[in-house]
Amino acid sequence: MTVPHLFKGVAVVIDNGIGTGEAIDTILASIRASGGHAIELGKLPPPEYDLEHFARVSFFIMDWNLANDENGIPLEAKVRLPEMLDKQMVADNIDFLKRLRRSRHAPVVIFSNEDPDTVIDELSADGELHKSVQESHILVKRKVDVADKVYEILEDWGNATPSVLTLKTWERNYIRAANDLFIDLHNRTPYWPVLLWQTFGADDIPPEVEMNKLLNRLVESRMDLLALELKPFLETVDQERAKNHTDYIESMNGVLEGERFLRASKLRDGIYAPGDIFERVVNEDKRTYWMNIRAECDCLRGSDSMELYLLRVKLVENPEISPQFGLISNEKDTEAVVFAMMDGKTYTVKFKDMDIRELRKMKDMTRVGRLLPPFVTRVQQRYASYLQRPGMPRIPEVFYPAAEEAVKA
């Protein structure tokens, strides 16, 4: 019996054969014997059900064939469903999986008495789910092949998938730190959030924004170092790089963008911050980009009449990277270059090109995303140095290399 490590916690089991003596009962018994707890559902939650209730679930088990006969008895695999009913059942299953992935990044084990490849083909045909299948986030197995090995299968998968291994390790660390924080502050006074909320309000800053930042900072201060080891995956990554360098670079660009840039769809409307990137459509063939660098406290206190300080952002065609330091080597004092900011492309923020605009007069501009710290912090710091740069006298011409060569000639 495998004792869960990464997948400790509650499991949701969706199977209309629960309690009928089928293989699913053996799987449930295995979960309990390993110390786990299962929420048992005989059918899919309805579309109106809020799947946020599953936010802390460790993993999901789901039967692909949830059809019953007129007496409510699960239909066996050998009973062929009418084509329309079969298509509707598949559509319902796929809709549930798509809704679920928006609420919880946890593995889903799908059981089928049919050939698993049939289910995989149906899942892969959906544009939103095919990657989850490709990367084994959705596992399709026969019930009889799992039996009492559910944790063994999940633990092997988690330990072989670096994103899952990192998520599960970080989650335990984060939850422990958050619990420690709230116990600590509650013991001081149960009204501690209200006291801080009052302070935020007195500063005329949206309190929900500041409270979120405060909690994240306090939880992070209580987190331990991650007990995480990813060295075993380095060889696999090197092999993928050698096998298809183009795909490797594309993946790396995507990761770098995720590290430093947040798309507008992830930002809250009406809340602005330094690093916000705006697009202005000049004509069908030309677009310009502008970055807000106004201080965060000013942005948070702003209204429609607030002015944003916008610097021109331009594409850099051939950024030069210093192998010694891993930084852009051809960056000038009048700019700040951000590598792989959007769509794998490098952009430079030009300090000489500023446009001060009121929010209400920016109807011709659309926010496309936000550059995140520490990258936007570096832009602001370099701009501050640019504004305060002192004028220096030129070095006499006699010291120029060309002058020396002329003397020698």
Distance from N terminus to C terminus (CA atoms, Å) equals: 87 Å
> If helices are DSSP runs of H or I spanning 4 or more residues, what is the number of helices?
14
Mean pLDDT: 87
Strand order, largest beta sheet: 6-14-7-8-9-13-12
Rg estimate, integer Å = 28 Å
Low-confidence stretches: none
Helicity level: 40-55%
* Overall spatial form: globular
User: What does the main sheet amount to?
Assistant: 7 strands, antiparallel
Please indicate the percent range of residues in DSSP E strands (runs of 2 or more).
Answer: 15-25%
Question: Count the strands?
Answer: 14
Output the structural class: alpha/beta
Q: Give the topology string: H per helix, E per strand.
A: EHEEHEHHEHHHHHHHEEEHEEEEEEHH
Task: Write the topology of this structure.
Layout (H helix, E strand, L loop, with lengths): L9 E5 L8 H11 L3 E5 L17 E5 L19 H19 L6 E4 L4 H9 L5 H5 L3 E4 L1 H4 L3 H11 L1 H27 L3 H11 L4 H15 L12 H10 L1 H16 E3 L12 E8 L2 E7 L3 H5 L6 E10 L4 E2 L4 E2 L6 E8 L2 E14 L6 E7 L3 H13 L13 H8 L1
Parallel strand pairs: 1-2, 1-3, 3-4, 4-5
Antiparallel strand pairs: 6-14, 7-8, 7-14, 8-9, 9-13, 10-11, 12-13
Short description:
The protein is an alpha/beta fold.
Describe this structure in words.
The chain has 409 residues and is an alpha/beta fold. The chain has 14 helices and 14 strands. The strands form three sheets. Strands 6-14-7-8-9-13-12 form a seven-stranded antiparallel beta sheet. The radius of gyration is 28 Å and the shape is globular. The mean pLDDT is 87.
